[in-house]
Amino acid sequence: MKLEKREITLNEFDSLKDIFYTEKCLLSEYVLAIAKAERKETRGELISISKEIAEDVCFVGDLMRGASIENE
Prior knowledge:
Elements: H1 5-8, H2 12-36, H3 40-71
Helix pairs in contact: 2-3
């Protein structure tokens, strides 16, 4: 079966959606790690990293909204 070019290319929105899902899953794992962490220093570091990931999730979400508006 031969694949046509349009069947295997991703558009910008699809790529952003993949990034958004990955970042969201990563944030969820950090939250679970925070709940299991016993040391205060470890929790602090995980919270700091979680904040960065949360900002990335928001940024990618904004990009997705911009990309979906452009596609309409």
